[in-house]
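Q: What changes when pyridoxal-5'-phosphate is included in the input?
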Amino acid sequence: MKDLVPAPPPIVRNEAAAVQALFQQHVIPSYGRFDVVLSHGAGSYVYDVTGKRYLDLGGGIAVSSLGHAHPAITEALIEQSRKLIHISNFYYHEPQGRLAQALVQLLGPGKCFFCNSGVEANEGLFKLARKFGHDEGRFEVLTSFNSFHGRTLAGIAATGQEKVKKGFEPLVPGFRQVPYNDLGAMRAALSAATAAILVEGIQGEGGVTAAAPEYLLGLRRLCDEHKLLLMFDGVQDGHFRTGRFQSFQRLLEGEPGADKFLPDAVAMAKSLGGGFPVGAFWVRAPYADLLGAGSHGTTYGGSPLACAVALKVLEVVQRERLADNARRMGEFLLSGLQNLVDRYPTVLRNARGVGLMLGLELAPDIPGLPGESNKTQAVRFANLLHAAGVLAIPAGAQILRFLPPLNLRPAEAEEGLSAVEAAARCLAQQSSEHR
Ligand SMILES: Cc1ncc(COP(=O)(O)O)c(C=O)c1O
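A: The predicted holo structure follows.
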């Protein structure tokens, strides 16, 4: 891999309290934020306003696929912004056409639509499902418990977590959840109104749980038998994070029949733009013209600037074989985390995941875990890692996620493991003193 970590700019001010005060006064408090005020980044590291360096193993929740301040992204932004940042989707332009072609080559015969975020990509899939089933009066999309599909009204109706729905009822009709990885439950849930199934290959927000290969193959058969669309939400686990372009390709590796497996639609975002907001969905050939002229749109979707950046991210990922790196670094991190689980069972319960999408489940009720009792264990453990200079993302109350850049280096992976180990060792000592 090329050396791509430029020297960070010097730190001149310590204005954390002032920045936090601006948020408290002027920003809607819909996020529970950590006590960290970031200033800039370089490669796999970010720096706060006091100059403290953090290894970013959260990757902005699986977004910063090339790390921070990658010169190729900066160059693409500058070069394209000198030519054309935005035009209406009433007109053609080359970057959108070339990005669609690249995604089709990676997935299979079909077509793409471009938007700006993950939930917007999923909204497109919901509309595709409605259009698909419309003439037969079918409209329902089945999803999974513990799934996460975004924060719009349809997104929360599709999501299988009560906490995102609470207070926003009545929910958009036409979504039902069933247990994940349970083909019998999915079969039993089908109704005359069902038009599609939407599934994450690896549930991310739900705690890093992978679908079993036979489940995915079974879903394809079920959809074929009942004339349903099989749709994947590849927003978090996609774009080479697992070592293949989409997680289903990785999860099905070596399975008989896997080479013929193709979903009917895939939603993408996050790593696609490496930090620049780009969303997309791909639709398999037979259904690719269902959303005809006038049926769907968004002002900014697939702008020349967004597509130029996404094309550049793809070029770097492919040229530098970052899918292989994600696989290698993922295996290294996972075995390191599993080793820590074995050594510190009173603190760490389980490590799981595929490629650079990893989850570390904490033991219940860790004695001596610092932090306020109204904060989840995952948040309190993340705070310990922050103190040690590592960023990780909570998933639910008990799990920490690691979703680092795809160009993570071995020394950085080791640094992350050392920080987790130091925190676990310290807590394990306290819990043995507690007994
Ligand atoms: C699987 C999945 N789908 C959809 C979304 C929503 O994406 P966005 O926040 O870009 O709308 C997320 C975000 O975390 C996600 O993980």
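Observations recorded in class: Residues 61, 117-119, 122, 148-150, 200, 204-205, 233, 235-236, 269 surround pyridoxal-5'-phosphate (CB under 6 Å).
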